[in-house]
Amino acid sequence: MRISGWVQKLLCGYFVSAPQPPSIQALAVHGAASKLKSACGSDVKFDLKVDSFPAKDELTQIRNFSTAIKDGALAYCSDAGSKKAVCGITTIEISYSGSVSVRFAGGKVAVTTDSSSYPSWDMMMQEVDK
Fold first, then answer.
1. Is residue 7 pLDDT above 80, yes or no?
2. DSSP β-bridge partners for residue 47
3. Distance (Å, rounded) from C-alpha 50 to C-alpha 47?
4. 8 Å CB contact between 83 and 100
């Protein structure tokens, strides 16, 4: 007995759910976390507030900010003092608010993006270094 293609897909999807591939944002954040670990020795967790982004297109700012972190970490963590500053960061929260901002308190960096901009590495570290 031959089962038609759409019935087979339906049944396979019902009984066996294939794992979903990670999103581009999750991959970008993983790369940034890996770079912070290798360059600075810091184990930073990322908290993505994906639901705060009004449109899927806006999520590219997560990738852009993650790239800024990867590029900045390597150059910044060149001495013990800089590494110590980065190790003070435990969590980086990324959300959308319509304006770009960076806040640092209690080991948590909270950054917000808008449609066309994201915080730079220098903006983030300026808050951390205060």
1. no
2. 93
3. 9
4. no
**Distance (Å, whole) CA 57 – CA 61:** 9
Structure tokens at 102: 């960076």
Q: Is the dihedral of CA 100, 103, 107, 108 positive or negative?
A: negative
CB burial of residue 111 (10 Å; 0-12, 13-18, 19+)? buried
Average pLDDT, the chain: 84
Rg (CA), the chain: 19
Closest-CA residue to 96 (of 57, 45, 44): 57
DSSP string, 31-94: HHHHHHHHHH----EEEE-GGG-SSGGGGHHHHHHHHHHHHHHHHH-SSHHHHHHHHT--EEEE
pLDDT score, position 22? 53
| Contact residues for 23 (Cβ-Cβ < 8 A; gap 6+) | 59
